[in-house]
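Notes from hallway chat w/ T.B., transcribed later so I don't forget. T.B. wanted the structure written out for a chain they're using in a teaching module, and asked if we could keep both sequence and structure tokens in one place. Agreed to drop them here.
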Amino acid sequence: MGNSSTKLAVYSDGVLTHRQRTDKVTRELLASIIEAHGIDEGILSSVARNDYSIDDYLQQHLQRYMRLSHSTPLPIGLHYATPHTLGCDRIATAVAAWELNPNAASLVVDAGTAATIDVVDAQGNFAGGNIVAGVTTRLKALNHYTSALPLVETEGDTPQWGYNTVTALRSGAILGLVAEIEASASRVKAKLGCEQVTIFLTGGDGPLLAKHMQAETRLENDLLTNGLYRILRYNEGL
């Protein structure tokens, strides 16, 4: 459950068999998915404040249920001064990145309403990261806090240099975030002393940003749910 929408995914023997995104999660929706796919276990990651009825429902209707938190046993370490403030979505994507790129450094970018740019080091530790405004948030802020700038859609011509106000805003928001990501990868290499950093890109704006990345990037649309599945399996025998 994210800031703007919720992503639901069903796995069977490690294979993703169903995915959907919704603006509102209801008990009826969960009941239909559980029944249709014969689900008996699940895990929830949420940044929402009003999800307790959903939490209760899953506890009651699944044989095994986990709600991810900073205290959940994980296959990676958390090197974060305030782990209780660390978003569960960031934990899950870091776990998935480590699973896909073990024993190597990764930069994990989840591009949504906010964009998180996180580091997983070669020892399998969440080493920290940054939180910045996402593409749509940047465009909305420029429209809201100025008197003359229009609200611009993310889709459309995105030249290296804008040739009118609309393209200047769009390119500034999209290419500006791309530049932040690529600069972060360079800083990680210098900080960790490694030759290669794998950039993982996920989230609603992941495909949009991937089109403009010059650095080699792995677009993984299901990185978050893959991480949740991995955490669920990791805790199976604990």
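Follow-up for T.B.: The chain has seven helices and ten strands. Might be a good example for the class.
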